[in-house]
Amino acid sequence: MTQIRAVKLSKQFKTKVVLNQLSFTLTDGVVGLLGRNGAGKTTLMKIIATLLRQSSGDVFINDIPVTKVKQIREMIGYLPQDFQFYNNMKVNDALIYLGLLSEMPLAALKMRIEILLQRLNLEQYAHYKIKELSGGLKQRVGIAQALLNDPKVLIVDEPTVGLDPEERDNFRRFIGELGQRRIVIFSTHIVEDIAHISDQLLIIDQGGLIFQGQTTDFSPEREALEPKYLALIRGDRHEAF
Asked: What is the domain-level CATH number for residue 32?
Protein backbone atom coordinates (compact mmCIF):
# COMPACT_ATOMS: atom_id res chain seq x y z
CA MET A 1 0.00 0.00 0.00
CA THR A 2 1.18 3.51 -0.83
CA GLN A 3 0.91 6.39 1.63
CA ILE A 4 1.27 10.16 1.25
CA ARG A 5 1.73 12.08 4.47
CA ALA A 6 1.84 15.86 4.79
CA VAL A 7 2.95 17.52 8.03
CA LYS A 8 2.28 21.25 8.55
CA LEU A 9 2.83 21.90 4.86
CA SER A 10 2.93 25.56 3.83
CA LYS A 11 3.77 27.44 0.66
CA GLN A 12 4.23 31.17 0.32
CA PHE A 13 4.97 33.25 -2.76
CA LYS A 14 6.49 36.53 -1.50
CA THR A 15 3.79 37.84 0.86
CA LYS A 16 0.97 35.59 -0.41
CA VAL A 17 0.27 32.44 1.61
CA VAL A 18 -1.04 29.80 -0.81
CA LEU A 19 -0.99 26.76 1.51
CA ASN A 20 -1.20 27.14 5.25
CA GLN A 21 -0.15 24.36 7.65
CA LEU A 22 -1.77 21.40 5.85
CA SER A 23 -1.52 18.02 7.58
CA PHE A 24 -3.13 14.89 6.13
CA THR A 25 -2.59 11.24 5.23
CA LEU A 26 -3.68 9.57 1.98
CA THR A 27 -3.75 5.89 1.05
CA ASP A 28 -4.59 3.83 -2.06
CA GLY A 29 -7.73 4.91 -3.89
CA VAL A 30 -9.07 7.97 -5.68
CA VAL A 31 -8.56 11.16 -3.69
CA GLY A 32 -10.83 14.01 -4.72
CA LEU A 33 -9.01 17.32 -4.26
CA LEU A 34 -11.77 19.88 -4.20
CA GLY A 35 -11.70 23.65 -3.98
CA ARG A 36 -12.49 26.87 -5.73
CA ASN A 37 -10.20 28.11 -8.47
CA GLY A 38 -7.20 29.63 -6.70
CA ALA A 39 -7.69 27.61 -3.50
CA GLY A 40 -4.19 26.08 -3.71
CA LYS A 41 -4.96 22.73 -5.37
CA THR A 42 -2.40 22.99 -8.18
CA THR A 43 0.29 24.26 -5.81
CA LEU A 44 -0.26 21.25 -3.54
CA MET A 45 -0.05 18.82 -6.46
CA LYS A 46 3.12 20.43 -7.79
CA ILE A 47 4.78 20.09 -4.40
CA ILE A 48 3.86 16.39 -4.23
CA ALA A 49 5.13 15.96 -7.81
CA THR A 50 8.45 17.71 -6.90
CA LEU A 51 7.81 20.61 -9.30
CA LEU A 52 7.66 23.14 -6.45
CA ARG A 53 9.49 23.25 -3.14
CA GLN A 54 7.42 23.88 -0.01
CA SER A 55 8.19 26.90 2.15
CA SER A 56 7.90 24.88 5.35
CA GLY A 57 6.63 21.55 6.60
CA ASP A 58 7.14 18.15 4.99
CA VAL A 59 5.53 15.74 2.53
CA PHE A 60 6.46 12.06 2.44
CA ILE A 61 5.59 9.29 -0.01
CA ASN A 62 6.14 5.93 1.67
CA ASP A 63 8.28 7.78 4.23
CA ILE A 64 10.53 9.28 1.53
CA PRO A 65 10.52 13.12 1.64
CA VAL A 66 9.56 14.82 -1.63
CA THR A 67 12.84 16.73 -1.45
CA LYS A 68 14.50 13.47 -2.65
CA VAL A 69 13.44 14.34 -6.17
CA LYS A 70 14.88 11.40 -8.13
CA GLN A 71 13.39 8.74 -5.85
CA ILE A 72 10.00 10.46 -5.74
CA ARG A 73 9.76 10.96 -9.51
CA GLU A 74 10.22 7.23 -9.99
CA MET A 75 6.95 6.78 -8.06
CA ILE A 76 4.95 9.65 -9.56
CA GLY A 77 2.88 10.10 -12.71
CA TYR A 78 1.57 13.62 -13.39
CA LEU A 79 -0.92 15.05 -15.87
CA PRO A 80 -1.11 18.85 -15.51
CA GLN A 81 -4.14 20.76 -16.72
CA ASP A 82 -2.08 22.58 -19.34
CA PHE A 83 -0.12 19.55 -20.57
CA GLN A 84 1.31 20.37 -24.00
CA PHE A 85 1.54 17.58 -26.54
CA TYR A 86 3.74 17.45 -29.59
CA ASN A 87 0.87 18.08 -31.98
CA ASN A 88 2.65 17.00 -35.14
CA MET A 89 3.96 13.78 -33.60
CA LYS A 90 2.10 10.50 -33.81
CA VAL A 91 0.72 9.09 -30.57
CA ASN A 92 3.13 6.15 -30.42
CA ASP A 93 6.15 8.31 -31.28
CA ALA A 94 5.23 10.93 -28.68
CA LEU A 95 4.97 8.29 -25.95
CA ILE A 96 8.31 6.76 -26.92
CA TYR A 97 9.93 10.20 -26.86
CA LEU A 98 8.50 11.06 -23.43
CA GLY A 99 9.53 7.69 -22.04
CA LEU A 100 13.08 8.07 -23.30
CA LEU A 101 13.26 11.51 -21.67
CA SER A 102 12.48 9.72 -18.41
CA GLU A 103 15.37 7.34 -19.10
CA MET A 104 13.20 4.25 -19.49
CA PRO A 105 14.91 1.33 -21.33
CA LEU A 106 13.59 1.25 -24.89
CA ALA A 107 12.51 -2.41 -24.94
CA ALA A 108 10.57 -2.12 -21.67
CA LEU A 109 9.14 1.21 -22.81
CA LYS A 110 7.74 -0.24 -26.05
CA MET A 111 6.11 -3.11 -24.14
CA ARG A 112 4.60 -0.68 -21.65
CA ILE A 113 3.23 1.56 -24.43
CA GLU A 114 1.62 -1.44 -26.13
CA ILE A 115 -0.13 -2.39 -22.88
CA LEU A 116 -1.31 1.17 -22.22
CA LEU A 117 -2.61 1.74 -25.75
CA GLN A 118 -4.65 -1.42 -25.43
CA ARG A 119 -5.86 -0.61 -21.92
CA LEU A 120 -6.87 2.93 -22.90
CA ASN A 121 -8.54 1.88 -26.17
CA LEU A 122 -5.98 3.88 -28.13
CA GLU A 123 -4.57 1.11 -30.33
CA GLN A 124 -6.38 2.33 -33.43
CA TYR A 125 -5.03 5.86 -32.86
CA ALA A 126 -1.38 4.88 -32.35
CA HIS A 127 -0.37 6.32 -35.72
CA TYR A 128 -2.63 9.37 -35.61
CA LYS A 129 -1.04 12.76 -35.06
CA ILE A 130 -1.89 14.31 -31.70
CA LYS A 131 -3.59 17.26 -33.42
CA GLU A 132 -6.03 14.86 -35.09
CA LEU A 133 -7.44 13.62 -31.77
CA SER A 134 -10.51 14.80 -29.87
CA GLY A 135 -10.18 16.35 -26.42
CA GLY A 136 -11.09 13.08 -24.75
CA LEU A 137 -8.56 11.10 -26.75
CA LYS A 138 -5.83 13.65 -25.96
CA GLN A 139 -6.62 13.23 -22.27
CA ARG A 140 -6.24 9.47 -22.66
CA VAL A 141 -2.83 9.99 -24.27
CA GLY A 142 -1.97 12.30 -21.37
CA ILE A 143 -2.90 9.57 -18.90
CA ALA A 144 -0.83 7.09 -20.91
CA GLN A 145 2.28 9.26 -20.59
CA ALA A 146 1.63 9.66 -16.85
CA LEU A 147 1.40 5.87 -16.48
CA LEU A 148 4.52 4.99 -18.46
CA ASN A 149 6.50 4.23 -15.30
CA ASP A 150 3.56 2.40 -13.64
CA PRO A 151 3.55 4.96 -10.80
CA LYS A 152 2.45 4.39 -7.24
CA VAL A 153 0.92 7.90 -7.25
CA LEU A 154 -0.96 9.39 -10.20
CA ILE A 155 -1.77 13.11 -10.08
CA VAL A 156 -4.28 14.60 -12.54
CA ASP A 157 -5.15 18.30 -12.50
CA GLU A 158 -8.64 19.29 -13.72
CA PRO A 159 -8.69 16.47 -16.30
CA THR A 160 -12.35 16.74 -17.31
CA VAL A 161 -12.36 20.45 -18.17
CA GLY A 162 -13.45 20.89 -21.79
CA LEU A 163 -14.65 17.31 -22.24
CA ASP A 164 -18.14 16.58 -23.52
CA PRO A 165 -20.48 14.62 -21.16
CA GLU A 166 -19.75 11.22 -22.71
CA GLU A 167 -15.99 11.73 -22.62
CA ARG A 168 -16.24 12.97 -19.03
CA ASP A 169 -18.14 9.86 -17.95
CA ASN A 170 -15.60 7.59 -19.66
CA PHE A 171 -12.72 9.44 -18.06
CA ARG A 172 -14.25 9.26 -14.59
CA ARG A 173 -14.77 5.53 -14.95
CA PHE A 174 -11.17 4.95 -15.99
CA ILE A 175 -9.81 7.08 -13.13
CA GLY A 176 -11.88 4.99 -10.72
CA GLU A 177 -10.30 1.81 -12.07
CA LEU A 178 -6.79 3.24 -11.75
CA GLY A 179 -7.39 3.98 -8.07
CA GLN A 180 -7.76 0.29 -7.28
CA ARG A 181 -3.98 -0.20 -7.08
CA ARG A 182 -2.44 3.22 -6.45
CA ILE A 183 -3.19 6.67 -5.08
CA VAL A 184 -4.89 8.83 -7.69
CA ILE A 185 -5.14 12.50 -6.75
CA PHE A 186 -7.92 13.94 -8.86
CA SER A 187 -8.18 17.72 -8.71
CA THR A 188 -11.33 19.49 -9.78
CA HIS A 189 -13.70 22.32 -8.99
CA ILE A 190 -16.56 20.30 -10.54
CA VAL A 191 -18.33 18.59 -7.68
CA GLU A 192 -20.00 15.97 -9.88
CA ASP A 193 -16.57 14.53 -10.68
CA ILE A 194 -15.83 14.02 -6.98
CA ALA A 195 -19.23 12.53 -6.19
CA HIS A 196 -18.86 9.93 -8.95
CA ILE A 197 -15.43 8.46 -8.28
CA SER A 198 -13.62 9.58 -5.13
CA ASP A 199 -12.99 7.30 -2.14
CA GLN A 200 -11.17 9.96 -0.12
CA LEU A 201 -11.67 13.68 -0.02
CA LEU A 202 -9.53 16.76 0.56
CA ILE A 203 -11.25 20.14 0.56
CA ILE A 204 -9.04 23.22 0.45
CA ASP A 205 -10.26 26.77 0.80
CA GLN A 206 -8.00 29.84 0.81
CA GLY A 207 -4.98 27.63 1.40
CA GLY A 208 -6.44 25.92 4.47
CA LEU A 209 -7.67 22.36 4.88
CA ILE A 210 -11.44 22.27 5.36
CA PHE A 211 -11.88 18.50 5.41
CA GLN A 212 -9.81 15.33 4.99
CA GLY A 213 -11.13 11.79 5.19
CA GLN A 214 -13.30 9.22 3.47
CA THR A 215 -15.87 10.78 1.15
CA THR A 216 -18.60 8.86 2.97
CA ASP A 217 -17.41 10.35 6.27
CA PHE A 218 -18.29 13.88 5.23
CA SER A 219 -21.10 13.52 7.72
CA PRO A 220 -24.22 15.43 8.77
CA GLU A 221 -22.44 16.54 11.95
CA ARG A 222 -20.32 18.87 9.79
CA GLU A 223 -23.31 20.51 8.16
CA ALA A 224 -23.50 23.27 10.74
CA LEU A 225 -19.86 24.12 10.10
CA GLU A 226 -19.61 23.62 6.33
CA PRO A 227 -23.14 23.52 4.86
CA LYS A 228 -22.16 24.62 1.36
CA TYR A 229 -19.51 21.91 1.03
CA LEU A 230 -21.73 19.18 2.46
CA ALA A 231 -24.56 20.12 0.11
CA LEU A 232 -22.23 20.03 -2.86
CA ILE A 233 -20.71 16.65 -2.04
CA ARG A 234 -24.15 15.15 -1.44
CA GLY A 235 -25.06 16.30 -4.92
CA ASP A 236 -27.74 18.78 -3.83
CA ARG A 237 -26.13 21.22 -6.27
CA HIS A 238 -24.25 20.09 -9.38
CA GLU A 239 -22.09 23.03 -10.23
CA ALA A 240 -18.59 24.31 -10.25
CA PHE A 241 -17.60 26.66 -7.43
From this structure: 3.40.50.300
